[in-house]
Structures are given as C-alpha cells and as structure tokens.
Amino acid sequence: MLVDGKWKDDWQMGKRTDSQGHYIRQESTSRHWVTPDGAAGPTGESGFKAEPGRYHLYIALVCPWACRALLYRKLKKLEDVISLSISIPEFTDQGWAFGGDYPGSIPDPLYNIQYVHELYTRADPDLTGRPTVPVLWDKAQDTMVNNESADIIRMFNSAFDAFGDASVDFYPEALRTEIDALNDRIYGALNNGVYQTGFAASQEAYDEAVAAVFNCLDDLERRLEGQSYLLGERLTETDWRAFVTLIRFDVAYHGLFKCNLRRLTDYPNLSAYLKRLYDVPGVAETVDFDHIKRTYYSIKKVNPSRIFPKGPDKIFV
Question: Which of 23, 55, 58, 63 is catalytic?
C-alpha cells in the first residue's frame, strides 16, 4: 500500500481484517463522475465531460471489479472512445504491474508507468491507501476520475451514449429499484463474499462467509428456474455484476479461496445462465482464463508455493 505517497511492501500494513478475522474491503478513494455535459454526478466534483479520446481505463483481467468496466466498454461499443491498459498476469510486490509483452497485456501509453500505484501518486502525491483497479483516468486534466467499478459501469451505461451504442441500457428506469436491491444482496454475499471467504483470518469468519456464498448461489439457482436472467427476460446490470464472479468461481474461488462446498457446474440453472451470458457477442473477449488463474495463484498470502493448478478442465456444463 501507499503511505504518505510512498510504496510500502507489507500485506499486513493497514487493517485487512477485524478483531474476529473478517476480511475488510477498502473503500474506493476517487469518486468523480463523467457526465454528458460535465456537470457533477452523484459524488465528486464537476468538470468531467464525456468526450471521445479523453479518458483511459486501467484494468487487470483477473479482477472481477475491473472486468465489469471492461465488459461495459465492449458492450456499449466504447472501444474507440475510451482507451485501455491491461496489467500483466501477476500480483507483484508492488501491486498491479504494466509493461512487458505477456499475451493479453497492454502497456500504459500515457506515462509508461510500471505500477498502478504510480497513477495514484500522480493524482495525489501524499496518498495513503491501497492502489486498486479499475482506474478511469482523465487525459485532459491529468488526474484520476474514479476507481469504483460500480460508478464506472453506470457512467459507461449512459454518459457516453452520444459516441457509443445508446440502444443498450442495462439500468432501465423501470427496474432500478429491483436492480439496486439484488445488487446489494449479490455484492455482500457473493461478489465480496468469495473474498471474505478466501481472506478470512479465523475459522469463525470463514464459516460465516462460505455459508453466505453458497446460500446466495442456492438463491440464484432457484431464481433462475424458468427464466433467462436474474430479473426475468431482460439483461440488466445485475447480471453482469454476477457474471464476473461466477465466471471465476470454479477456476479460482472454489480451490484457492476454499469456496468448495460445491462447484458452479453442480448448479444446472446457474451453469446454463453463465454460458448464456458468456455467449453474448463480445463477452468472451473480456474473459482470459490464463490471466485469471495465473494472477490469483500468484498471490503469496494464499498460495505461497506459487504452484499453478492444471484444472478445472470444464467451466460450463
């Protein structure tokens, strides 16, 4: 993490778990919004107008949060509007790293940074915190716009409609109350729940987290009985927020994070649903199983031997 703008290579620095061993996720630090006219969004300050070529997105293909943004960039046809950098598939001693020629990675074309923490100190030289992805960067003001994926996908959904595909709307007004409610359920029990399971520091915290993960999966399995998507027959933001965790489940969370009561392939409705989402044109291009596996299994805290597994050999039923 960064302490007063200086990199500190210490996993334990900063509070990662509470006194009972429950994993604590850091809050995002930059919450400005890009809007069609540059007015202030729900959080942050004004001055970030949607313009083609002005913004750059930094991601890691392993990260489900970052790949939410990558998905929206693809599905909203914003690839020629928002440029992109992709980290190498390794969680290094200095965090997310860019550069090199590993397949699927894209170096930083703006400042030739090696590590994402260099972006954070470029925006705030005295920052204390953990540098995360995604990062949405404003080339015009040479600063960070936002590092919260939930905000970024909402921006991508509508702010750039003058330049992308305005016909695609994953947050329709009529379903927003239902979307927000189910998002909250899935975030706490599944999206963040797999991390609370994998990084639990006590048996009690692990038992609580793994139960929540599989209770949520059981609920989603029942919900999908007789319908194509989580809110019926229309694809929404909730589906994509679930997708990025589900597509990584058997590859990483089942083994590495000890979410091993059942595999996703043991759920027929969820498996068919996951394949349905994966088959949406463009989605498979945002999923790189090699990057996912190599990066997760490079985390020393959970895989000190750095042995990379061969399986699973089947992702879908």
Answer: 63
